[in-house]
Amino acid sequence: MALINTKEMFRKAYEGGYSIGAFNISNLEQLQGVLEACKERNSAVIIQASKSAINYAGVDTLVSLVKTASDEIGVDCALHLDHGPDFEMAKRVIDAGFSSVMIDGSHFDYEENVAITKKVVEYAHKFDVTVEAELGVLAGTEDDVTSDVHQYTDPDQAVDFVNRTGVDSLAIAIGTSHGAFKFKGEAKLRFDILEDIQNKLPNFPIVLHGASAVDQEAVATCNQFGGDIAGAKGIPVEMLRKASSMAVCKINMDTDLRLAMTAALRKFFAENPKEFDPRKYLGAGRAAIKNVVLGKIDNVLGSKNSL
Ligand code: G3H
Ligand code: 13P
Ligand code: ZN
What we know:
Blueprint: H1 7-16, E1 20-24, H2 28-41, E2 45-50, H3 51-57, H4 59-73, E3 78-84, H5 87-96, E4 100-103, H6 110-126, E5 130-135, E6 140-142, E7 145-147, H7 155-165, E8 169-172, H8 191-200, E9 206-208, H9 216-224, H10 237-245, E10 248-253, H11 255-271, H12 278-301
Parallel strand pairs: 1-2, 1-10, 2-3, 3-4, 4-5, 5-8, 8-9, 9-10
Antiparallel strand pairs: 6-7
Helix pairs in contact: 2-4, 2-12, 5-6, 7-8, 9-11, 11-12
The structure holds glyceraldehyde-3-phosphate, 1,3-dihydroxyacetonephosphate (13P) and zinc ion (ZN).
């Protein structure tokens, strides 16, 4: 099975009022956990890797791994660059075989974001690779860049940006943020901005980053078995469902998978002090990832039978 781009999956997701899960991976067990869950639910999926994940695992290794695992498990998937920092990185992964890329120019000024996105789109489209860009800034940290405040996406600017760049999907800032500490007080997302963008850009796929729900049970398990994660809080599931039923076609989740895997490994080590076979503890991590993704498909994305 070849890697596929996101065009058709987003078209179907928009029409069907559901979202495609985009899950970050950097190793075999995370990848298998995600793909096994999607196989079981017959769900479309985007496997994504950040620059630091690519530095960790190797770009060619990741491409081979994702192609082979998707073949063996029997799930067509997209392999997407998450938060591509520059043209060179986007070109590098396209040349290596990624089927989709994000160019994240959200930290540049507007004209620079337009220019870099356009350049990536021109290159990517020659190879039938789809491109996601970002407009507005999410609070929190992504790769090396940190922002303390949200800069919500301006709907009129979004229209201008999409028209001028020819980008295939757009990540927007409506109050989500990366990592495990998203809200101090009550969770709040600007659905009015999402609605405005949807009205101004009909049928255009919108992407939500920083969309982990931060399962309190996983946090509690981490802490029960030696972890120290205090005050973690994510996006309420009902809000993600609502976004999925609107123009949001791709929901990015990384933190929830990290927490689940860490909780499973901590528990495993605490309960099996004599065990030192990596297949046993990484197998427990893989099972935990699969379980989280099954829950996401059922309760957040609504993407069952979308393959
Ligand atoms: O948005 C960022 C993703 O969670 C990737 O994180 O750069 O640590 O791989 P990473
Ligand atoms: P979370 O940190 O909420 O999982 O978001 C991940 C993400 O947006 C990856 O691009
Ligand atoms: Zn992100």
